[in-house]
From TrEMBL:
GO molecular function, one term: catalytic activity
Family annotation (Pfam families): dCMP_cyt_deam_1
Lineage of source species: Bacteria, Bacillati, Actinomycetota, Actinomycetes, Kitasatosporales
Name of the protein described by the UniProt record: Cytosine/adenosine deaminase
Length: 142
């Protein structure tokens, strides 16, 4: 459930999306707020100007939070974003330990606006060579 305070911060994320579009990038913007609503950082999409397919604002903010915030502070944050995070960004948000995401446009709604934009999945084969990979990975977690 969103609140009027959420809507205020979400409007700022939408404004960042407009900034991205004005700079020649896809129209996505996000900000990260602390528990009291203070804006800690903000980003907009820069995939085209940076020539980097991963330059989503949600991913950039989650990476920033993982570098700059301690775990307790990160766990009190809320990300406000113009569009629901994609799978890549969602995973990084989770790894960064952020508490909550509030978005304006769902991924399903985005596909309605931008039909034909989904890409086919990349074929994957595996698992394979379990004993070999286990010998490399398992000691790290013990």
């Amino acid at each position: 459930m969103t609140t009027p305070d959420d809507h205020t911060l979400l409007r700022q994320a939408i404004s960042l999306a407009a900034k991205a579009r004005a700079s020649g990038n896809p129209p996505f913007g996000s900000l990260l707020a602390g528990p009291d609503g203070t804006i800690l950082a903000e980003e907009h999409n820069s995939t085209l100007t940076d020539n980097d397919v991963t330059a989503h604002p949600e991913l950039k903010l989650a990476r920033w939070a993982a570098r700059e915030l301690d775990a307790q502070t990160a766990a009190g944050t809320t990300m406000y974003t113009s569009c629901q995070p994609c799978g890549m960004c969602e995973a990084v948000i989770q790894w960064a330990g952020l508490r909550r995401v509030v978005f304006a446009l769902s991924n399903e709604q985005l596909l309605d606006i931008r039909p034909g934009s989904s890409r086919p999945p990349v074929p994957q084969d595996g698992p394979a060579l379990l004993d070999e990979v286990r010998a490399a990975v398992e000691p790290y977690y013990r």
